[in-house]
């Protein structure tokens, strides 16, 4: 789908709290997509960032590749699932200002997409992103499980919770996973979480992207071993996969990423990227 130039800019200040973090991740991804040596092809992210009136400088340094690498990891797993389930429904929980559908829409012309997010975010998406008869927008919290009634699971379900679970209370995150496992046997769910030390420092305000911005608290985290044990803790989970990040740009970045993800010594201090299979 070809981006079109915006006729007017939308006010980004309508997003507050956790929702505001979507502006930061969007700007990081758009800045990466603008690079001549970009690791992600995301013209819709550039269009979206250019369509929003907001002081992005408050987020500090946003010319980095981490958010793009994370997005590519989610894309890779979604593509693999859609290759086997071309008519599946992809459910993007708390999708924020992600542009995943537009990067994936060419994989199949049959899969459907359900965006679940709070009303202010849905209003922005409806105003700024191209409409598609393959995309449904659901204006509610991911914790209001009634969104599940809108999912046709006959041809498969792939659920993403990119940048969501860390901002929920532990019982909320685990409850959401459990309900997805119960409702969508045969489906998959992917999520990411920070390491406990990072979440603690963020919550205490010890790590800030800038003096003008403080990331909301992150009450929930898991180690890789704790994530792996979900197969024993939550009925309906058939398998748990520790997902490796795809390559980024630069030998140093890739060497550090490869080492941290594969050397068990770092398991308790590295982020978690998890794919669940529901049975």
UniProtKB/TrEMBL annotation:
For this UniProt record, the keywords arranged alphabetically read as follows: Methyltransferase, Transferase
Which residue stretches, if any, does this entry annotate as coiled coil? none
Entry's SUPFAM superfamilies?
Answer: S-adenosyl-L-methionine-dependent methyltransferases
Concerning InterPro entries, the annotation shows:
Ppm1/Ppm2/Tcmp, SAM-dependent_MTases_sf, TcmP-like
Q: Which Pfam family is one of this chain's hits?
A: LCM
| Source species, domain of life | Bacteria
Entry keyword annotation includes Methyltransferase: yes
Instruction: Report the EC number(s), separated by commas if there are several.
Output: 2.1.1.-
GO terms in the biological process aspect are: methylation
What GO molecular-function term can you cite, just one?
Answer: methyltransferase activity
Q: Does the keyword Methyltransferase apply?
A: yes
The name this protein goes by in its record: Class I SAM-dependent methyltransferase
Organism listed in the record: Mycobacterium deserti
């Amino acid at each position: 789908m070809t981006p079109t130039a915006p006729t007017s800019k939308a006010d980004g200040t309508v997003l507050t709290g956790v929702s505001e973090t979507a502006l930061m991740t969007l700007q990081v991804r758009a800045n990466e997509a603008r690079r001549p040596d970009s690791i992600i092809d995301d013209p819709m992210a550039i269009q979206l960032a250019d369509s929003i009136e907001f002081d992005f400088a408050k987020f500090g340094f946003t010319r980095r590749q981490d958010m793009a690498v994370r997005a590519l990891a989610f894309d890779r797993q979604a593509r693999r699932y859609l290759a086997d389930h071309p008519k599946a429904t992809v459910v993007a929980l708390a999708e924020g200002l992600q542009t995943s559908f537009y990067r994936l829409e060419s994989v199949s012309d049959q899969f459907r997409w359900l965006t679940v997010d709070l009303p202010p975010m849905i209003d922005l998406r409806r105003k700024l992103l191209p409409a598609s008869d393959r995309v449904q927008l659901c204006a509610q919290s991911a914790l209001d499980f009634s969104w599940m009634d809108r999912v046709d699971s006959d041809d498969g379900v792939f659920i993403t919770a990119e940048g969501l679970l860390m901002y929920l209370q532990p019982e909320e995150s685990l409850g959401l996973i459990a309900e997805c496992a119960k409702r969508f046997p045969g489906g998959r769910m992917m999520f990411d979480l920070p390491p406990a030390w990072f979440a603690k420092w963020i919550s205490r305000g010890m790590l800030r992207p800038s003096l003008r911005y403080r990331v909301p608290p992150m009450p929930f985290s898991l180690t890789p071993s704790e994530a792996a044990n979900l197969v024993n803790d939550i009925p309906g989970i058939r398998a748990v996969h520790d997902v490796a990040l795809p390559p980024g740009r630069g030998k140093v970045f890739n060497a550090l990423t490869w080492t941290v993800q594969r050397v068990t010594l770092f398991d308790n201090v590295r982020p978690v990227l998890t794919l669940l299979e529901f049975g």
